[in-house]
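Report of the visiting student (M.T.), summer placement. My assignment was to run the structure pipeline on a short list of targets and document each run. The first record concerns Probable periplasmic serine endoprotease DegP-like.
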Amino acid sequence: MAKRFLIPLSATLMLLAWTGLAAARIPLPDITELVDKDGPAVVNISTTKTIKAQENMRDLFEQFHKRGGPMDDFFDQFEKFFGPQGRGGKPHKQRSMGSGFVISADGYIVTNNHVIDNADEVKVQFRNNEKPLSAKIVGRDQETDLALLKIEGRTNLPFLEFGDSSKVKVGAWVLAIGNPFGLENTVTLGIVSAKGRIIGAGPFDNFIQTDASINPGNSGGPLIDLDGKVVGINTAIVASGQGIGFAIPSDMARDVIAQLREGKSVRRGWIGVTIQDIDDNTAKALGMENTKGALVTSVLEGQPAAKAGVKTGDVITSVSGEKVDDSNQLLRRVATLKPGESAEMTLLRKGQPMTVSVTLGERDAKKLAQQGAPGDENGEDDAAPDKAATVIGLAVRSVTAKEAKALGMDKARGVLITEVGDGTEAEQSDVRPGDVVLEVNQRAVNTPDEFKKVVAEDGKQKGVVMLQIKRQRQTIFRTVPLAESK
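After the run finished, the structure tokens were exported:
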């Protein structure tokens, strides 16, 4: 008797589905004409920079001892085996490669700042052109990792136009053209995987993520939509992953490049606050219905926000009519405005909405990178600190005058956390020994008793306590959920 084979129903349905897809013949985009049109405007960029020789070991140690010391025999043997070339060695040339694209017929070229950073010489190679051309650096912006180059004496170059990255949808087809691993004019096709990615590359992270293959050497090349417009500048990859690349949105790049093309440095608005995001517990402590907005952790004295009346603990929810969802969006929004402009900011202060007008200052990246010098700890004598009391797993006591001065405070205020209980909600909320709590649920506390009272009353009512903390001269907020009473 012939054997009969039974196919499970699920397998049958799967087979029918695949058959249906094959019959439908869902087409992939044909990009051949697009590559022919846009490819000639994409260039390879090679740079040469001089690397100064590093001090050798003898040079380093000679800073700390004189000849005739016990290290002489060691260095004599070192030079015997390795030679004296390391000592005061000659500078050497280092070469690197990247990508770029022409944005005007007269030779302006966009690339990444990190492609040409510290370069002594920049060469641009066009497709099907054997001779590389010299390019000068017109301007660059470290904070967005963008740079503008110029080739002189050309007036008829092929070029690409910027598109509108705000209209690009997740799932849309895009192609990348560049110079991965030195393989010039390589084309890869993929989709937009996500938008608004924050990867820690800089203060204005807002990357387009794509699975179009991007590799070392693609940096500075264009991410192009099916209309042939540049919607992103390929910038970064996840080295340990596949199909995870990131591009600077064209909407961000367009304004930066325009300023560089005018021969100007990039100017950005500045309000003079430090900010952080709002999580669910913090929103609960603030009496907010959602986590939208940027929480002001400190207001810099004499800066635009302070002059406008913004206070620590305020939540900024919009700037000039544009909603602010988080701290990164606030930073980007303010940076798009020009110094001297007036901006209307909507705030929530202790649950109440209000509007203030801020005249923007100018962001100075160099000053922002500098850390405040530690204060002189040799101040007035302190009275003996009070005994620590334990609240919500935290041992706290009043702050002494010397401790306040070390933290850059004008006077002793707040309570010092001397111990954080293992496994407590406070520990899990990143509250640390050495933190100074200035406010609990936006109420000032200067003694353990005041701390206890706010926790027992307002904290118990809301189920959370939001701590305004001074940590290493920085002001931050940490929110601790309270255990439910049983």
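The radius of gyration is 30 Å. The longest strand covers residues 186-197. I thank the supervising group for their guidance throughout the placement.
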